[in-house]
Every structure is written in C-alpha cells, then in structure tokens.
Amino acid sequence: MEIQKPYTTAIEQQPITLEHKPYSPKLSDRLVDAGTARATLAASNESPNGTTTDNYAAKNQRRTVVQQHVTYWDRDNDNIIWPRDTYIGCRDFGWGVALSLFAAFVINVGLSYPTVPGILPDPFFRIYVDNLYKAKHGSDSMTYDSQGRFRPQQFEDIFAKYDRGEKGGLDAGDVWVFWKEQRMVFDVFGWTACALEWIATYLLIWPEDGIMKKDDVRAIYDGSIFYRRAEETKIKRSHTSPGLVAKAKKIL
After folding, report:
1. What radius of gyration do the chain's Cα atoms show?
2. b/e for 18-55, b at 16 or more Cβ within 10 A?
3. Which candidate, 111, 129, 18, places its Cα nearest to that of 73?
C-alpha cells in the first residue's frame, strides 16, 4: 500500500515521467527516511541496515560509504592506494592479468589527482582515501553525495525507474537506458566514467541469468562485494585439481 501524497511524480503530458517513476515509499517498506543520506551505511529497502554479513557495517562506522567502496584495495590500512594495490585486488577477485592492468591504469590515473592533498599531481598515481569524495563525477546515479555519503533515494530510483518488468535487478538493456538518460550535457568525462563503472560492475557480478541483482549492486557501493568475490575466488582456486594446473602450465 502506497502512502498518499499531496503531489504527483508523473504526468501524461510528459510521457517519460510515466515511463520512469521514482522510488515512492510504501507503508510496508523497511527503509526509513530514504531522502536522508547515510554517512556509513549503504541502506536500501531490502537492506535498511546496510551490509550486516560478518558485521561489515558495524566494523566500518569510522569510514564513509565512499571510503568503504575502496577499502578492499587498501590492504595496509594507510589510506593510500597504489596502482599495484588495485592490480592485486582485481587479480584476487578473479580478473585476468590484462583486465587487472587496465583497471589499475584507469582507476588510479582517473582518481589520483582529485584526491591528492596538495596542488601538484602524485607521480606514482596514488589514491588518497581521505579525499576520495573529491573524485565524484557527474552523469551517474548521484547515489554518493558530494561528501561521500550514501543516498538511499537515489539508489532506489535506479531500480524503480529502470528495472523493466520488476526483475529485482538490471540487465544490460536496463543499464543502457539508465546510462543514456543520466548523461549531463557536455560531460564527456562523466559519460565515460559511468559507462566504465557499469561495465566493471557487470564483469564483477557476472550474473548467470544476465540480471545484476539489486543487493549485489548495493554491495558495490559499500565495497563488501569485493571481499566476497575474493573469498569465492580463493575457494575456487583451492579446489582446482593440481593435475589440471600442471597441464595448464604445460600448455601455456
């Protein structure tokens, strides 16, 4: 049952507003104050308390959600991410050498300068986690605010507007429509960054049915999915037959 409001979110005179309606809370919804940004929780209607597995949200109460997004790569907890850290992190959750090198190049080159503590660029392309909020770009969902908080309303809007058929997630076609409609005029950097982020999201989740589940996408925002994928990859590698490994080495 929807809460009756003294306003409307769509009008017939502008069909696109009928086609892509924003998230509107229902009385049965578990998410409260969807319009209020969370500093430390990536909250959704299905996960109003953020990621609770292994007390992930409780362990990260001293980091904003955008900082949690990259903590996986900060292995020594010094709040600095080197290109090598990014490469190793990508390899650990199963990406190949070429893709991991490409990701390390794009991520560190793209995010280093906005986060440096001074004016001069970092010659090693390091990312400074304390200033990560400064690397926010346009033409995306705006789920992170300008200070690195998580905005549940904007996150819920992604699925309310673009999950055609209410599948509980997004397929490639949904993401294509989302990307086209989120583009801001002349924001070439934002268009490119948003496209690369969603491609990386798809490659990381790699859904068997082609649908990226809503909670998996939410877990991208707080970074918890990176730890999960790395653990899954570690288990798969440990179960690989030694004979197959030896055979593969001979082939390679």
Report:
1. 20
2. eebeebebeeebebeebeebbebbbbbbebbebbeeee
3. 129
Task: Determine which helix (DSSP H) or strand (DSSP E) holds 197, and give its type and residue range.
Answer: helix 188-205
Separation of alpha carbons 186 and 80, rounded Å: 32
Write out the two tokens for 67.
């900082």
Q: Helix, strand or coil for residue 130?
A: helix
Helices (H), 61-187: 65-71, 83-92, 97-115, 152-162, 172-182
Q: What is the pLDDT of residues 168-198, one digit of tens each?
A: 999 999 999 999 999 999 999 999 999 999 9
Q: Is 192 helix (H, G, I), strand (E, B) or coil?
A: helix
State how far the Cα of 109 lies from the Cα of 103, in Å rounded to an integer: 10
Q: What is the pLDDT of residues 115-164, one digit of tens each?
A: 999 999 999 999 999 999 999 999 999 999 999 999 999 999 999 999 99
**Is 148 in a helix, a strand, or coil?**
coil
C-beta neighbour count of 103 within 10 angstroms: 20
Distance (Å, whole) CA 75 – CA 91: 14
Q: Which of 117, 62, 134, 92 is nearest to 225 (CA)?
A: 92
Cα diameter, the chain: 70
